[in-house]
Prior knowledge:
By secondary structure, the chain is of the alpha/beta class.
Amino acid sequence: xxLLTLQKALPQLRKAYKERRLIPFLxxxxxxxxxxxxxSGLMKWMGEGLQFTPxxxxxxxxxxxxxxxxxxxxxPEKLPGFIQEMERRFHAPEVERRRRTSIQHRALADxxxxxIYTTNFEHHIERxxxxxxxxxxxxxLARLQDFMRPVDPAACSVIKFHGxxxxxxxxxxxxxxFFDRHLLxxxxxxxxxxxxxxxxxxxxxxxxxDPNIRYIWHRMYRLRQESMEGADKSxxxxxxxxxxWVTFGAGLVQPRLxxxxxxxxxxxxxxxxxxxxxxxxxxxxx
Length: 286
């Protein structure tokens, strides 16, 4: 069982960062300081569109992905408008202001990552990078054509694993869309396969109970195992690649389960979560 404090984790993290082999994988929790609409809020909007009274009643009929699937089946013509409303609220002026003052977004931008993965739909990660340096090159990859373009070695690639609100056709919102993404056969997954071979991943902003990230963790482990099956058995085995999941309270079960997937758990101080995340990111290059 690998449960680490920040101080214990820093030597490995700094080594991977210095070698440019550390890749952040950011979830909704990373954007918590921006106070974006929650899944509960999103479902309330859908309930209003379906004329549930009160709209909150819609939530009791399933999880967010199932309810989004129902909304799409009942009113497929309304889903594009719903995604447009998401974009409007996720990128509202007050949210943009919060990003510019978010210490963890600034800390992320101060790091020199070559690649960042995210399951978030919004544009605040790439905008945070440009907030700190207007000349910084950032490539956002969400569509197949994005991955087919020549790679700018000077740019940071922000890979939108579940789509980008700027391109509604890429958004993974319904249960069926999540199941399709779990096949890990889309363009972002081909890039992930390559990045898995020589990099360590740092997961920030995910709950251990999130079934989608748990499936990604499992598939990442299996893909690494499959890539090793064809390796030369007579050669010295490569060093074990670890990944890291950042949490604010791990308990006993999570570290033991994640050890099976070669993921170490880093437990941070929960008294000020944004400050703790910023300290971790700043410590990588200090």
